[in-house]
Amino acid sequence: MKWDWSAVSGFLPHLWDGLLVTLQILALGSLISFALGLVWALLMRVPSRWVTWPVGVVTEFVRNTPLLVQLFFLFYVLPEWGLTFSALTTGVFAIGLHYSTYTMQVYRAGIEAVPVGQWEAATALNLPLRRTWTAVILPQAVRRVVPALGNYVISMLKDTPMVMAITVLEMLGQARLYSQEHFQFTEPLTVIGVAFIVISYLASLALRALERRLAH
Amino acid sequence: MPTDTLPNPGTDPEKTPARGTGELIRLEQVTKRFGSNTVLDHLDFSVDAGKHVTLIGPSGSGKTTILRLLMTLLKPDEGTITVDGQQLFPASDKQVREVRKKIGMVFQQFNLFPNMTVLRNITEAPVTVLGLSKDEAVERAKGLLDLVGLADKCDAHPAQLSGGQQQRVAIARALAMRPQVLLLDEVTSALDPELVAGVLDVLRDIARSTDITMLCVTHEMNFARDISDRVLMFDHGRIIESGTPEKIFSDPELDRTREFLSAVL
Known about the structure:
Subcellular location (chain A): Cell membrane
Order of helices and strands of chain B: EEEHEEHEHHHEHEHEEHH
Structural class of chain B: alpha/beta
Largest sheet of chain B: 6 strands, mixed
Keywords (chain A): Amino-acid transport, Cell membrane, Membrane, Transmembrane, Transmembrane helix, Transport
Helix content of chain B: 25-40%
Order of helices and strands of chain A: HHHHHHHH
Radius of gyration of chain A: 21 Å
Number of strands of chain B: 10
Transmembrane segments (chain A): 20-43, 81-99, 189-210
Distance between the termini of chain A: 53 Å
Oligomer: heterodimer
Number of helices of chain A: 8
Shape of chain A: flat
Distance between the termini of chain B: 33 Å
Structural class of chain A: mainly alpha
Number of helices of chain B: 9
Shape of chain B: globular
Strand order of the largest sheet of chain B: 6-7-8-3-9-10
Organism (chain A): Streptomyces indiaensis
Main location (chain A): membrane
């Protein structure tokens, strides 16, 4: 098999289109999973089974069914109920939701790792519960969980090609399209492989910098 | 020493209602169990305003539990707790929050907030709970840091301080709320020996120069002798002997007290 540089240069504009979509899914999916995961983790601490039971059931269900099934479900079933979103929006939401069921466990561990003495000091100072969370507990918990959240960002990056199944053209989608039109598979697939490595590497550098900053 | 920064609720008529010299804390028939272990057994005791009371006794005898009940970190299984004429247990959450403002606590493990500077540790609660302005809270905090000898550490984080310095910040943090009662829970037990004196000196100073009521659990018997008006000897969840420090330390009634003291002195 011959390596054809002209196929690489021919694919590059498509790579760029796909890259923007991949990064969009990664960035928005991360934000959703970070925010929603925190919401789940906090709801699981509400001292009422009327809250924790449904949240527990929903998140267990989402965590233990395949992302691909969820993508198909949201893309093909929701419109039947009158809820129509673009393929990209659906993909971002599905990935964010799926990963929120993992980040909630990360947050839970981070919250539980804050020493009980911190809660006691907050009580002794009469801090309201809300303030105890926002000023004392969460800042310490989040600092602890940044490395673990970062690992899920990398994981999520590697799951972004799944949105191809609901017609979103991210990097893999673009590579497949180009390959089928030009009957050249090696170059586009190799190029996006390299692109994935570069993104994960840059993301891990950014995360390490963030960790260092959070450690004062 | 700037006297206007001292916690002195009794001479600040705007902050607190006129306080008599009578009873400030009362526990009646208080029982606390952990599982099948009865830590406090129908305990009655009271503390008068402005007094310094030290609780001594072997570990597991219920001393720390009393402080934790008063701070509402624990709830008794039976009995009533009253502070300054207002019930703390049983009571509604709203009432608990109100009565709890009268009480401050310093912990064995300091429990400073590591995500905040020293200054913010001290100003956080006065601003959010008492509604002080930022400037007022900072001024109060700086006065207290001066009192505990750490005026230059405003912007440090707790991790950058020694244990003794952290504990002195924790004392300042508790005093910034101007409590009527200060609970001291083995405040020097987690410190390196050479740092103990600095913390105890600060507490002696506060005991001497303010009329704050102190409840103190400690193994530092010399400190207890210096500051206490009354010493209570605990054993198995009961007060078995009480009296002035001179009486308890020099001439205890009970062999059990004598035995305990000879073991720790």
